[in-house]
Amino acid sequence: MHARAVTALTTALLGTVALLLPATDVRAVEDGTPPVVIAHRAGSAHAPENTLAAVDKAARLGALWVENDVQRTRDGELVVLHDDSLQRTTDVEQVFPGRAPWKVKDFTAAEIARLDAGGWFSAAYAGARVPTLKQYVRRVDLHHQKLLLELKNPELYPGIERETLKLLGNEGWLDREHRSRLIVQSFSADSLRTVHDLEPAVKTGLLGTPSVSHLPAYAAFADQINPSYTSVSRAYVSAVQAFTGPHDKPLEVFTWTVDTADAARRVAGYGVDGIITDKPDVVREALRE
Description:
There is one protein chain. The chain has 13 helices and nine strands. It is globular, with a radius of gyration of 19 Å. With 289 residues, the protein is α/β, with parallel strands linked by helices. A hairpin with a 5-residue loop joins β2 (65-72) and β3. It has helices at residues 3-20, 26-31, 52-60, 92-95, 109-113, 133-142, 160-170, 176-179, 189-198, 215-218, 234-241, 261-269, 280-288; strands spanning 36-39, 65-72, 78-80, 146-151, 182-186, 203-207, 224-226, 254-255, 274-277. The longest helix is centred in the N-terminal third of the chain and has 18 residues, at 3-20. 37% of the residues lie in helices and 14% in strands. Strands 1, 2, 3, 4, 5, 6, 7, 8 and 9 form a nine-stranded mixed beta sheet that branches.
């Protein structure tokens, strides 16, 4: 199809969707299913982000899904940390004062294991550590939770897709039961395509808000489109869900990072499939109302 035709089709589709959709949550009207709630960085409003303590807290709050971020150390260990630098969420400046800019990729796993990843959040969590991915998935499994795993900055870590999948396989997360509790997401379409090629049975999510005209290409390897909640509309969500993903099911939409009751109710009204939040308790309560 020519680019001009694609553009015209996209405009027509969005316009039609906007006109036809009612003011209520179409999905809820159809089957009464509310969006799933995912604890962002395991619920970073309640415990230091991406730590085992945060996973435990999310479980106590009843969060069935947790989200995390994966990076790689200098010696090849996969660790759970959001930033590509250790500076914001650990005491790395005090422990290793001469190692600026304190990039994860420049430190060994043993060095990172020495860092306090909880004291910055509150004294109650002082001594919490940066978990390895192996430690993290074991804790998630202990609580029988589901995992939305983000490959963070994959361009910094060539081969991280294969290494992550190998670890998940070694920990049992690629068997049929665990696969139903696992989604791998990334801002990198190339990284997600690699994950899909290596393990076609694993669900994948593309972070961002791509144009509807690009969705047919992404639907070849992505099961979800996961945009910021500030960038979505009812028309966009419905347009995404009109496409079929690689597992012959409609594309899903998990939106982030929704931390207020009003925003939760608004995106639920758009018909999103999942809400990623630092405050899973707030969002769950809002969706009950």
